[in-house]
Amino acid sequence: MRDATYYVATSLDGRIAAPDGDWSAFPVEGDHMATIVGEYTDTLPGHVQSALGLTADCSMFDTVLMGWSTYTPALDVGIDSPYPHLRQVVASSRDRTVPDDVELTADPLGRLRELKQEDGTGIWVAGGGTLAGAVIDEIDHLVLKINPVVLGAGIPVLGSTTYAARDFRRTRLRSFESGVVIAEYSRAGG
Predict the structure, then answer these.
(1) Structural domains of the chain in order of their starting residue, each with its CATH number
(2) pLDDT tier at 165 (50, 70, 90 boundaries)?
(3) What is the mean pLDDT of the chain?
(4) The organism sits in which domain of life (predicted)?
(5) What is the pLDDT of residues 79-89, one digit of tens each?
(6) Can you tell me the mean pLDDT for 101-112?
(7) I need a labelling partner for 59 at 20 to 30 A (CA). Which of 43, 126, 151, 174 fits?
(8) What is the structure's pLDDT at 166?
(9) In terms of Cα–Cα distance, which of 116, 105, 40 is closest to 67?
(10) What is the mean predicted confidence (pLDDT) over 78-107?
(11) Complete DSSP assignment for the chain
(12) d(Cα 165, Cα 77) in Å, to the nearest integer?
């Protein structure tokens, strides 16, 4: 059985984006970027890897599960397969048209449970917050890139879904001069 990791950027007040989905307040320059690019290469979109001269080896993740709102920004700029190096699964409650290398699911929790039973490396739960809240029972690890900004309003890191409390234990904490903190957690008892 493989693990699912919710790897996401967040503000100090627990928002993954502004109310309109904009995340441009998060710093994309600074000493934290070497860790993101070096360790989390699998999470970089294909066009970003190409621009940086990188190639993901899928050693950390070979599958990405994302919500429709997370997938849409790529579509808006003409990219219908943002993570061509990964198996891409997009959750949507509506029937939509996606390319052949992108899978659509109306049951993200059930699909994540199935994916975890398959062989492979990890599964990256990319967001958004509503999706993460809906699949919280199957998330084994949290990797939060905590940015030194307060958004005040926006999309909560685990959406507005109601769920029972879950215990996670901190496994690693890294602070950077940029003010970004990468905090890693694993499900307690797991």
Answers:
(1) 4-187 (3.40.430.10)
(2) confident
(3) 95
(4) Bacteria
(5) 999 999 999 99
(6) 97
(7) 174
(8) 87
(9) 105
(10) 95
(11) ---EEEEEEE-TTSEEE-TTS--TTS--SSTHHHHHHHH-GGGS-HHHHHHHT-----SSEEEEEEEHHHHHHHHHTT-S-S-TTSEEEEE-SS-----TTEEEES-HHHHHHHHHHSSSSEEEEEE-HHHHHHTGGG--EEEEEE-S---SSSEETTTT-------EEEEEEEE-TTS-EEEEEEETT-
(12) 38
The answer to whether residues 65 and 32 touch, using CB atoms and an 8 Å cutoff, is no
As a dihedral over the C-alpha atoms of residue 159, residue 179, residue 43, residue 1, rounded to 10 degrees, the angle is -70
CB contact burial 40-54 (16+ within 10 A = b; e otherwise):
bbbbbbbeebeeeee
